[in-house]
Design brief:
heterodimer; A: about 110 residues; 5-stranded antiparallel β-sheet; B: 7-stranded mixed β-sheet; globular
Chain lengths: ~110, ~110
C-alpha cells in the first residue's frame, strides 16, 4: 500500500516567518494530495489540496507544491500567525480511493 | 444541517468488553473510513467502505470489526481482541471512487479502557 512520510514532526517559527512541511509518497498511482489542519481537540479540516495534473496551488498565505517525478509535495505557509498553530497532516489518495496520512507536524507560531 | 456525526464523544470501556462507536453521515457519500489517532503516529486506517454491504481492512484492522448495512452508517466495534484500544477514533467520508475530493471528518470519539 501507500506509504506517506512527513517531516518535520515539530516546527516552531516566529510570527511573520514562513513554515514549510514536506511529505513523500511511495505509490506512483496516487493522484490526490490534501493537507489537513487539526486544532487541539478538534477534527481535521481540509486547508488545501492538489491534484496530480497540477504542480502548484496557492490560496492566500497557503501554497502547496507537487513534484510527481520525485514523489514529494510540500505545504508552505507565509506570514505565519499564532492561529496557524496546530497539527498539520499531509495525505495521498491512491487509485483505490484510500486516503493515507502522514504522521503529522505540530506547528507552533511564537508571537 | 449536513455533516458527519460520531457518538459518543467520550467512551469508557472495561477490559474484556466489546464497544461500538457510531458514525453517521447525511452527505450522500459512498465512501466511509475509520482511523485511529495516537500521539506521534498520525492517522492510521482501520477499515474503509466504498459502497453499502462492502468493506475492506486497512493497515490496523486486527481487533476491530465494521458493518455497512446503510449508506449513511458505518459503525466500528472495538472487540476484546484489540490489545491496546485506548485512542482517539475518527470517522470520515468522501464522495467515492474516481472523484478526488476531500474527506470530511467527524468530531471523533475518545475511547479509554479502564
Amino acid at each position: 500500500g501507500e506509504n506517506v512520510e512527513q517531516h518535520p514532526s515539530t516546527l516552531s517559527v516566529q510570527e511573520g516567518d514562513s513554515a514549510v512541511i514536506k511529505c513523500t509518497y511511495s505509490d506512483s498511482a496516487s493522484n490526490y494530495f490534501p493537507w489537513y489542519k487539526q486544532e487541539l481537540g478538534k477534527r481535521p479540516q481540509l486547508i488545501i489540496d492538489i491534484r496530480s495534473n497540477v504542480g502548484e496551488k496557492k490560496d492566500q498565505r497557503i501554497a502547496v507544491t507537487l513534484n510527481k517525478t520525485a514523489k514529494h509535495f510540500s505545504l508552505h505557509i507565509t506570514e505565519t500567525q499564532p492561529e496557524d498553530s496546530a497539527v498539520y497532516f499531509c495525505a495521498a489518495k491512491t487509485g483505490a480511493n484510500n486516503l493515507f496520512f502522514g504522521t503529522g507536524t505540530r506547528l507552533t507560531v511564537i508571537p | 444541517d449536513g455533516g458527519i456525526t460520531q457518538s459518543p464523544k467520550y467512551l469508557f470501556r472495561k477490559e474484556g468488553q466489546n464497544v461500538t462507536l457510531s458514525c453517521e453521515q447525511n452527505l450522500n457519500h459512498d465512501a466511509m473510513y475509520w482511523y485511529r489517532q495516537d500521539p506521534g503516529q498520525g492517522l492510521r486506517l482501520i477499515y474503509y467502505s466504498q459502497i453499502v454491504n462492502d468493506f475492506q481492512k486497512g493497515d490496523i484492522a486486527e481487533g476491530y470489526s465494521v458493518s455497512r448495512e446503510k449508506k449513511e452508517s458505518f459503525p466500528l466495534t472495538v472487540t476484546s481482541a484489540q490489545k491496546n484500544p485506548t485512542a482517539f477514533y475518527l470517522c470520515a467520508s468522501s464522495i467515492g471512487r474516481g472523484v478526488n475530493t476531500e474527506a470530511f471528518f467527524g468530531q471523533g470519539t475518545r475511547l479509554t479502557v479502564v
